Amino acid sequence: MANNYPFLSSRSAELHERGKAVIPDGVSRSTVIIRPHPIYVDHGDGAWVTDVDGNRYLDCNNNFTSIILGHANEEIQDAVRRQLSSGTAFSLATEPEILLAELLCDRIRACEQIRFCNSGTEAVMGAIKAARAFTERPAIIKIEGSYHGTYDHAEASLGSDPANWGPSDSPTTVPYAVGAPHSLSDEVTVVQFNDVEGAREAIKKMGSQLAAVLLDPMPSRVGMPVLSADFKKAIREETREVGALLILDEVISLRLGLGGAQALHGIDPDLTAMAKIIGGGFPVGAIGGKSEVMAVFSAEHGDRAAVPSGGTYTANPVTMTAGYACMRQLDESSFERLDYIGNKIRSGLDDVFESLSLDWHTTGAGSLFRIHPHGRRINSYRDAHLDSDESAVMQSLQHRLIEREVYFSSYGMGCMNLATSDRDVDHFLDAMKGSLEALRG
Ligand SMILES: Cc1ncc(COP(=O)(O)O)c(C=O)c1O
Question: What pTM was computed for the model?
Answer without folding.
Answer: 0.97
